[in-house]
Amino acid sequence: MQYPPNVRIIEVPCTGKVDIMHLLMAFEYGADGVMVVGCMEGDCHYSAGNLYAKKRVNRVKEILDKVGIGGERLAMYNLSSGMGGRFAEVVREITEKVLELGPSPIRVAAGTATRPIAEVTT
Amino acid sequence: MSATTPSKLQKMIASGNFAVTSEVGPPRSADGEVIEKKGNLIKDYVDAINVTDNQTSVCRVCSLACCIRLKLMGLEPVLQMVTRDRNRIALQSDILGAASFGIHNMLCLTGDHQHFGDHAKCANVFDLDSVQLIQTVRMMRDEGKLLGGHEFEVRPQMFIGAAANPFAGPNVAMRASRLAKKVAAGVQFVQTQCIYNMDTFKEFMKILVDRGLHEKVSVLAGITPMKNVGMAKYMQKRVPGIDVPDEVVRRIGGVPKEKQAEEGINLAVEQIEELKGVEGVRGFHIMAIEWEEKVPEIVERTGLYPRPNIDAG
Amino acid sequence: MIKAVPKPLEEVLDLVKDFNKLLIAGCDGCVTVCEAGGLKEAKVLASALRLYFTQEGRQAQVDETSLTRQCEKEYLAQLSDKMDTYDAVVSLACGVGVQYLAEMYNNKIVYPGVDTCFMGVNEERGVYSERCQACGRCILAETGGVCPIARCSKRMLNGPCGGSDKGKCEISKDIPCGWELIYERLKTLGQLDRFEKPVDPKDWATSRDGGPRKIVREDLRI
Q: What's the pTM?
């Protein structure tokens, strides 16, 4: 399975374990984009963890919009563990989106966004 | 039902004839002529004229000002007073004010919540409710006393009325029970919410009669003619506390648009004729909101015109 | 308990945007229970504010903390060492706590971070509804344990009004008719005879109408 190398995967037993603070801190520490990948709705191994995750993701998207970071940098996807191809697809999707948006304003402000947008080709 | 007042409405009811009242809605500006015109339109067809009090929480010329105008025109006003907008000081103050002009009828109401009106952001008062307002005016009339204890000589001679709604929750028996509470508080006459469901109304009246309440409080049946099927549907779906059976909506909607108003008047006339035969009904309160010009026709067609000549003294 | 909701983020941003050193002070009391102003919410707000300031290119310091209660001087006092370091404080306590904090640190700008709504119950997580208006003279014994002042939109004592429709208040189908609830309860308890006795006008002087209230319990004071 091939997908862009710029993704750092953090495994959790269930997306229900993902806290609002995890998402916000990721951006505080300079993530350009964050994706939360959970089970298909209705198939959560822990019954409703992915539904809690969806609510939290939506809340953080709203916050990101209001503080000037942009909620499009955060997305939730629902996949089953057998959907490797689809996983690669969604990683490409969000990578493209984030490249389009450019580096996170946090990295720009911190001076760690090293290349201007126009030079990024993959 | 104890105190006799100079009220002409009270005398008409006491005479055994069917009483007829109607209502006029004040304008939303400082126009003094509107009430004069409406009063003149219906004066020969009714025994008393209600003036609504910021009805549905829409700010209009106050009922007191309009009642004074009607009184000065030589007509018989019924001062409607809601407890939504005024505390006990203002309510008693307005009662004294009305009485000082010789106004002898009032309708004690709690009032529609301001949510419905044009000032939904306002604070409401509800220092008293309708039952407590009845108690208050009865005390002012019979004891010459205010709620705060002050005693006074020149008392308001009020014929005390209230609303009764057989169609609201929780059930008909409890609505009758609530009327019994108003009777205990001192109410002498009630005007009911407009009637479309005859069965429910008759059930309500039967309970009153069985309990002997019809002799303690005079019931004036509320009648509102439908202008068109839109009005019928709106009242059925969107107005809490009003029961419009489907057959009424079908009836009004079943005739061509230009005939619907006429059908609405026909229905109102039939309702009055039917209600004349219901024990305990002492008269009719015709609420033709912004359609006051139809009141004369309804009163004529139901044989209630001319109004009997009662020596009002 | 007291129920509150977080103020819209844009409103808080507008209040604090010109400051550089902020303390977000949560409260472990009521606002934690209704998830509006506890430590968790303080952390989220602080993080959101840090993101905001950083992307604005500003060096701002936003700290978060939470006190056991903000309506108690001994807990508020715990902030005294570090108070001087901050330009402003956003208190996520209910209106009571915000005021007490401001009273104790009276030369400090203190902003509210939640809208305090009412005293009520948890129907389920995230759903809260009003039950008490603190009228100062409880009449629940007379109404089968349902309060007409808090649950009737018109605070009638001789309800229901003519707008009570199939168990709902005329204002909204989401509001049960308080008097229908009282009626059902009195029926269950066999106390329907209460319904026909007029209830006299209430003495509102024990309520907000009598002015700001104070309780002095001499039996508790030394």
A: 0.93
